[in-house]
């Protein structure tokens, strides 16, 4: 009896072993994507580039511009069949660092980063470099001693945008006006550079003075609140508003109107971005000019991703061209605006 029992046990053990080995080999087939039912095989059927996985750490959704950039990157990933892992950092650098670390752990093929501020990126970029994951910076730059920590920066020239706004205002006011400035997010590249470019121009005109300057964090609601405070302290002294983006300019327009002032007429308003709402404000005569800053960076970003993944090189900086739009052309071009 004992011998028979041992025999049965051996047979049962052998059967279980056979099942486990069979199960494991099936699992291997599925993940390698050679069976038609596997998700990887489905991706191939739709023509998707199943091998490319990209992590995108976005700043947030503070402005129309930012939402247009997110859409462009998402749409382009979809069009190219690239698997995009998207994380919204809610304006926090710490959240971006956390997201990048997760992308590294997930062994993505490339990371797209729109850095909220310029500094503090070295340690995490070094981690990405050690893991041999190229980092593509979009829209904002970083301040690092070693530029091999990122593959490329695709962005506008923010200093030049500030210069364009300053030149327009100098011309419109014959070089004489009292200005309030709504700055972007503190320590962010566009806030630093747009201020720098604007000041570079107005210092040539002794009659142009910034009488108040404060951050409105690139958002409409904060732009309005800061403008209300400016109106309270300076009132009719304010002759011009320079806003580092359209959303803050639109907030400022609302505050001026609520105070009984006429934006675009009593007070010049000039800003940066070129979003559709700014074109509408120009058509309505409330915004005088906006400098375009193109957010449709998806195609350029994924051209760079695909080249880097294929071992090709990309330029260290890809500069997106901008230009200024004024009220006289707004009506004709508003219908063609893509964001
Ligand atoms: O970095 C680009 C700036 O960020 C845009 O001008 C602004 O609208 C956005 O939030």
Brief sketch in words of this structure:
This protein has 339 residues and is an alpha/beta fold.
Describe the structure in your own words.
The protein is of the alpha/beta class and 339 residues long. The chain has 2 domains: 53-156 and 295-320, Response regulator (Rossmann fold, 3-Layer(aba) Sandwich); 158-294 and 326-336, Rossmann fold (3-Layer(aba) Sandwich), CATH 3.40.50. The strands form 2 sheets. A 6-stranded parallel beta sheet has the order 2-1-3-4-5-11, with helices on both faces. A 6-stranded mixed beta sheet has the order 7-6-8-9-10-12, sandwiched between helices. Helix 3 (64-79) packs across helix 11 (298-309). It is elongated. It has 12 helices and 12 strands. The termini are far apart. Alpha-L-arabinofuranose (AHR) binds next to helix 3 and strand 9.
Q: Indicate the structural class.
A: alpha/beta
Classify the helix fraction into a percent range: 40-55%
CATH architecture of the largest domain: 3-Layer(aba) Sandwich
Just give the CATH class of the largest domain.
Alpha Beta
Spatial arrangement of strands, main beta sheet: 2-1-3-4-5-11
The rounded distance between the terminal residues' Cα atoms is: 83 Å
